[in-house]
Structure formats: C-alpha cells, structure tokens
Amino acid sequence: AAFLPALWADFVDWDDEYNFLGNPHYRGLGWRQLVWMVTTAWSGHWAPLTWLTLSVDWTLWGMNASGYHLTSLVIHAANAVVFLLVAARLLGLARPTATPGAVRIGAVVAALAFAIHPLRAESVVWVTERRDVVSGLFYLLAVLTYLRAADESSSGRRRWLALSVTTFVLAMLSKAIVMSLPFVLLVLDAYPLRRLPTRWADLTSARIRQLLVEKVPYLAVALSGALAAVVLAIELKGVAEYPLWARPAVFGYNLVFYLGKTLVPHE
Fold first, then answer.
1. Residue 252: what are its φ and ψ, rounded to 5°?
2. pLDDT tens digits for 126-136?
3. pLDDT (tens digit per residue) in 70-91
4. Distance between CA atoms of residues 26 and 158, nearest Å
5. Nearest to residue 46, comparing CAs of 167, 136, 165, 177?
6. Burial status of residue 178 (CB atoms within 10 A of its CB: 0-12, 13-18, 19 or more)
7. Distance in angstroms (rounded) separating the CA atoms of residues 40 and 232
8. pTM for the complete prediction?
9. CA-CA distance, 34 to 27, in Å (whole number)?
10. pLDDT tier at 67 (50, 70, 90 boundaries)?
11. Short-list 62, 68, 82, 83, CA closest to 6
C-alpha cells in the first residue's frame, strides 16, 4: 500500500533512459538476449538474473513502465514476507524465554520497519534498482534456509545447506553486492545461533574448522561472482558509473550514508 503510487509512475531520467529506453539488448527472451545478460556488466553491474526479470517485463508489458513497477513491488512484498520469517527466527533464538506472541509482534514490527522505510523507495520505485529487490529476495532466502539448517540433523542439514548455497548463487546472479553473506553467516553462528562455545577453553580448532569448512561453498560462490563482475566491468569500463579504483571509496561512502539514513531518514 505504501508504494502503490509507483504503479502510475514512469521511467525516470536518471539511468532509466540509458538502461531501458535506449537499450535494445534486454528486450526478449531469445538466445541472443540471454547471452547478452550473462556476458555484460551494463552500467558497471553484472546481474544476469535481474536482467532476466526485466526481459520478462518487456515481454509482458513492452515499454509500459507500470508493469515494471508492478514486478518490483511484488518482489518487494515477497521480501517483506521472507524478512518477517527471518526476523521471527532470529528473535526466537536471541530471546528463547520470550513468548511466541512477543516474538511474532517483534517480527512484525521489524518487517514493517524494513518494508516501508523511506530508503526502500530507491529500490522499489526506481526501475534501474530492480537488482536490489531481486538480490535481496535470494539473500534473505539464503539466510532463512541457513537458519533452518541449524535445526536439522546431519542429513537434513546438508539438504538445507545445499538449498541455502543455491539461493546464494541466485543472489549473486542478481547483484554482486551480496558477496558479504559468508561473513554474515559466521556472525550468526556466534549469535544468535550460539554454535560457538561460550567458554574459550571449549573453543577447539576442530569446531572452528567445521564452521569454516561449511562456509567454503559460500565463499567460492562469492569469489566467482565477484571475479565475473570485475572482469566484465573492466571490459566495459567505458560505461561503468565509477572506475574500479574508485569503488572502495564509493563503498565506504555508501556504508556510512545508508547506515545513517536507516537511523535518521531525513532529507
């Protein structure tokens, strides 16, 4: 409901013109378009799965911007649902003595804060940032299935971990920024999953090795996706928004900017 007015919005004269109005390469689901999606870092981003969703939009809606906004809004609504499930799981682990009702209320508040925060407008309403909502969906699913794996025995755990890695692959194919996931999972191992002993004396090298080996598939996916994004960005550096040498500075600025705006979302 908060983002419903987006359905009557048009493309904006801020990257949308370059990415969609003047870009014929993504229009269709043929072999030529699929190869282009996999082999391009258009605008400096390697995001073949995101381009696939945009190709589906073009197939369904042509150049009617309302259809593109509808797809982004539906994906964002799905993100809010998955975020709710992740929040409920994390809150339940963090506060094991809390009542189920209290956990549900906390999860709903967290999901609403995520779903309708002003910062979401950039990702949901700006068609160019479709890669945010698509990568976010698979990132959240990767976390959710990882948390589910923590509840299982060895055989069931392997299946859920495989599903988590698979969804992480899809997230990497949507936007390379999700490469931080292996480190996030290590943080979750410490808290609230409490997979590390609370006493230093009980912290064995075997236990640490088990947790690290478990992250190897995630790290392999992250490095592979990052390498593909960098190689293609170098090949197309003429259309990249920022040169590679400037990316660390941009990342640092974005980290401070978005953390600050999350806490104080003022103009």
1. -60, -40
2. 999 999 999 99
3. 999 999 999 999 999 999 999 9
4. 37
5. 177
6. buried
7. 6
8. 0.90
9. 10
10. very high
11. 68
